Amino acid sequence: MATPLTADRLVTALRAEGVKVVEHPGWRTNNRNHKGAWGPVHGVMLHHTVTPKTMNAVPMCFSGTGDLPGPLCHGVIRRDGSVHLVGYGRANHAGGGDPNVLQAVIDERYNDRPPAPHQHNGSAGAVDGNPHFWGFECENEGNGVDPWPAVQVEAMVRASAALCRAQKWGAKSVIGHLEWSDWKSDPKGPDNVVSMPGLRTRIADRLTHPASWTPGTTTPKPPAPQPSGGTRMNLTHLTRTTSTPLLPDSPVRIYWETEYADEPNQHGAGGHSVLQNADWTANLHLFFSGLGPDEALQVRHIETTSGGVAEEGPLANVDGFKDKGSVTRVVTLTGRIQPTETLSFEVTNLGAATVTLLGARLMMHSTPL
C-alpha cells in the first residue's frame, strides 16, 4: 500500500531505471479521477494492446476507444522499448478483479503466481482495480503468436522495477491482467517470454542491483557485513544466466559466470567451485521451466578435497509447478568447508522429461574458521 508517486517522481524513477521515456502531450492531466479516488496504490499491472504491428497504440491509449474512455493506462510500452506516458491518476485499465488476488499482492505472499482469480456472483469482478494499480499497455497482437522484441520485454521489466523501487515494493507487486481477472489473457506470447513468473524473476533480480544496472555488467562490490563481536563475515554473490538442460537422473554441477561479490582468489571465472575456509550459509536461487507438479529437482552441495575426494551434503527437494512454466525456487544450504576443500552445488532432475535450468544465483555468507 502506498501513496501514488507524483508525476515528476514517476518520470524520474523511470529514467533512473534506464527507461526511454516519451511524455505524450497532456498526459499529466489525463485521468478518470472524477469517477473516484486514485490510490492508495498496491502494485503494477501489465497488459497487451491487441493491436497490429503497423498501428501506434499511443493515441488510442490516451483517448480511449468508442466504449471505453481514456486513459487506458499510464504508459504504453512500444515495440522499440520506449515508454510513452499517456495518463496520470485513475485510468481505465484494470477493471474488476478478485479481492483475494489484491490481498496477495498487498501482502506479497504467494509462490510463483497469486491465487487464481474467479468471478464473484457472475459480476465482472468484486474489486475495482483502477484506483489501485499502475498500468502499462504493451504493444502486441495478443494472439499468442506475435513475438515480443527483447528490447520491449526489457522495458517492461525496467518500468515495473522502477515503480517497485520508488514505491518500496517487491517484484510480487507486479501482476498481469490475466492474474487479476479470469476472463483476461494478457500479457500473452510465444515461448513464455512474457510469463509473469519469469518477468517477476527478472524484476526481482533488477531490484537487487542499483537502478542504473545493465544486465551482464557487474555492480560495485558491497561491503562485507560484520556480525556482533567483530568477527569478519564474507559475502559471495555469483550468478549464471545461460540456460542448461537437465536430463532425467543426470546430476549437473552449476558453473558460475558472473562474480558480483567474493573474496580475492575465492572463485575462478567460469568455474563451479567456491573456495572457502569457513562456516557458510547459502541461498541458492534456481530459475527453471518444464518441471511438472508431481516432479522435483534435487539439490545438494559437494565438498571436494585437494585429492579429489567428494563428500556430498544433505539433499533438498525443489517441487515443480502445474503449468511447467518458468518458476523460481530458493534453497537454503549450510555447512563447513576446510582450507583444502572446494565447494560446489549440484542439481538433479527427478522428473520424467528434460527440464531447462534458466539460470541461478548464489548468495552466501561465510565466517572464516
UniProtKB/TrEMBL annotation:
<feature type="domain" description="N-acetylmuramoyl-L-alanine amidase">
    <location>
        <begin position="27"/>
        <end position="188"/>
    </location>
</feature>
<feature type="region of interest" description="Disordered">
    <location>
        <begin position="208"/>
        <end position="231"/>
    </location>
</feature>
<keyword id="KW-0378">Hydrolase</keyword>
<dbReference type="Pfam" id="PF01510">
    <property type="entry name" value="Amidase_2"/>
</dbReference>
<dbReference type="GO" id="GO:0008745">
    <property type="term" value="F:N-acetylmuramoyl-L-alanine amidase activity"/>
</dbReference>
<dbReference type="InterPro" id="IPR002502">
    <property type="entry name" value="Amidase_domain"/>
</dbReference>
<protein>
    <submittedName>
        <fullName>N-acetylmuramoyl-L-alanine amidase</fullName>
        <ecNumber>3.5.1.28</ecNumber>
    </submittedName>
</protein>
<dbReference type="InterPro" id="IPR036505">
    <property type="entry name" value="Amidase/PGRP_sf"/>
</dbReference>
